[in-house]
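REVIEWER CHECKLIST
Item 1: Sequence provided? yes
Item 2: Single chain? yes
Item 3: Sequence as submitted:
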Amino acid sequence: MKELVEVIAKALVDEPDQVKVTEREEDGQIVVELSVAPSDMGKVIGRQGRIAKAIRAVVKAASTRTDKKVVVDIVQ
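Item 4: Structure as written out by the authors:
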């Protein structure tokens, strides 16, 4: 899941070298944290969170192969 989020985020932002994705397991679920440059935060979140919701939907669809829930957090 980490690679999927990283590819999507790098395609959206102006500074792809600032994209950092970490993945950890917590309470039986996988938490993927996405961090981008402050100037690119709006591009990743989108208007009314539409881009963020779309990223989460794609990750949720891709995570059906695993038995664990995947959560995507966008951090500053």
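Item 5: Key structural point noted by reviewer: The chain has a mean pLDDT of 93.
Item 6: Recommendation: ____
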